[in-house]
Design brief:
Largest sheet: 7 strands, mixed
Radius of gyration: 21 Å
Distance between the termini: 41 Å
Shape: globular
Strand content: 5-15%
Structural class: alpha/beta
Helix content: 40-55%
Number of strands: 13
Bound molecules: pyridoxal-5'-phosphate
Length: 394
């Protein structure tokens, strides 16, 4: 089938890359040891801090998010250390797997893939650890496989209530630059980010925001590391350089994406994602499809995961939508395969793109013969215009 117009990439990352970012990357590669690169490096490293809401160090790796997961562990921990992790879904499972391979003793609190990390559970587990054997609490902020957002500020409070000194490490790969996230205020020690979602870049860069406490832990941590080593990275970073060849053209793109985020203003970026999350959930409710997320306090503003009714196949629905309307939706991952699909509404995105996305889903539901109530699109549109909006000047 021949498709015309633009493909709708509505998976929860990688997201649509703005033309401005694409153009910014379409430039000759420069000497990464020369003065022009130093300026780019300084600009980007400084510009990333407000995105994490930190005054501290931020590092940029040339890797996908999984690299930064591993880097968080090897920079702060030693073989045999105990860490506390929570089963929120596919991505918490993967981070746990890395921790196990790195020789951590992982205390993995089971979950039903429909809820975030329970702050009460954090407090209880840390309270039992009188000898402070647990070295780190590791949490996925926005579980991309389920559309559930854990409440990091509350988790921090629980750690403080338990008077426990463990590091707090948070994966913000599908929340950074889309949902409010405060590295410093929430007392996070290592925040892990990626380029391909809220930052509107192609895949290929990952990030850490690092607290002073994490830098101290780094001095004691004994796991072997070279490529990921903060000390190797932070030294040349002071002058805008990298210890090895950086992904120069992605850095050009990052500089432009940061300019775009500043033009819009982070608060407006968060508000826009909140509106789109709410409109999508209104559509789901009108269709009569069940959200994977059980707790309204934990609804994700960057993606919505929906169950299809029993006896129906979510991947068949996605296939029909791709074939007929040229729209990619997120598949159900591991134990949600076939049972759920995910609508990404993050990054370079607007009201009419959401309207198109919801239309594609509703037409797909009809073509796939999946029982639903019509009117989800209208509910989504009503939600979008029911919010107080600044009207553009005539
Ligand atoms: C929450 C979360 N963590 C980690 C990852 C892994 O990142 P990557 O696929 O870039 O290695 C992803 C990828 O989608 C993610 O959504």
């Amino acid at each position: 089938m021949i498709h015309t117009g633009r493909h709708f990439l509505q998976i929860p990352g990688p997201t649509n890359v703005p033309d401005r970012v694409l153009r910014a990357m379409d430039r000759p590669v420069i000497d990464h040891r020369g003065p022009e690169f130093a300026r780019l490096g300084m600009e980007v490293l400084a510009g990333l801090r407000p995105i994490f809401q930190t005054q501290g160090a931020v590092v940029v790796y040339s890797s996908s998010g999984s690299g930064a997961w591993e880097a968080a562990i090897v920079n702060t921990l030693s073989s045999g250390d105990r860490v506390l992790m929570f089963e929120t879904g596919h991505f918490s499972n993967l981070w746990r797997d890395i921790a196990i391979r790195m020789g951590m003793q992982v205390e993995y609190v089971p979950g039903n893939w429909r809820r975030g990390v329970s702050p009460a559970e954090v407090e209880a587990r840390l309270g039992e650890d009188k000898g402070h054997a647990i070295q780190a609490v590791m949490v996925v902020h926005n579980e991309t496989s389920t559309g559930v957002t854990s409440r990091i500020a509350e988790i921090r409070r629980s750690m403080d209530n338990a008077h426990h000194p463990a590091l707090l490490m948070v994966d913000t790969i599908s929340s950074l630059a889309s949902m409010d996230y405060r590295h410093d205020e929430w007392g996070v020690d290592v925040t892990v980010g990626g380029s391909q979602k809220g930052l509107m870049l192609p895949p290929g860069l990952s990030f850490h925001a690092i607290s002073e406490k994490a830098l101290l832990a780094n001095k004691r941590a004994k796991l072997p590391r070279y490529y990921w080593d903060w000390q190797e990275m932070l030294k040349p970073n002071r002058a805008g350089f990298f210890p090895y060849t950086p992904a120069t053209n992605l850095m050009y793109g990052l500089r432009e994406a940061l300019i775009m985020l500043n033009e819009e203003g982070l608060t407006n970026v968060f508000r826009r994602h909140a509106r789109h999350g709410e409109a999508t959930r209104s559509a789901a409710k009108a269709w009569g499809l069940e959200l994977v997320c059980e707790d309204p306090r934990e609804y994700s503003n960057t993606l919505t995961a929906l169950f299809v009714p029993n006896g129906h196949d979510a991947d068949r629905l996605r296939e029909i939508i791709l074939k007929n309307f040229d729209m990619s939706l997120g598949t159900g991952l591991s134990k949600l395969a076939g049972k759920a699909f995910r609508i990404g509404h993050l990054g370079h995105f607007n009201d009419l793109m959401l309207a198109g996305t919801l239309s594609g889903v509703e037409m797909g539901l009809r073509l796939a013969g999946i029982p639903h109530n019509p009117g989800g699109v209208m509910a989504g549109l009503n939600s979008l215009v029911s919010h107080e909006r600044e009207l553009a000047p005539a």
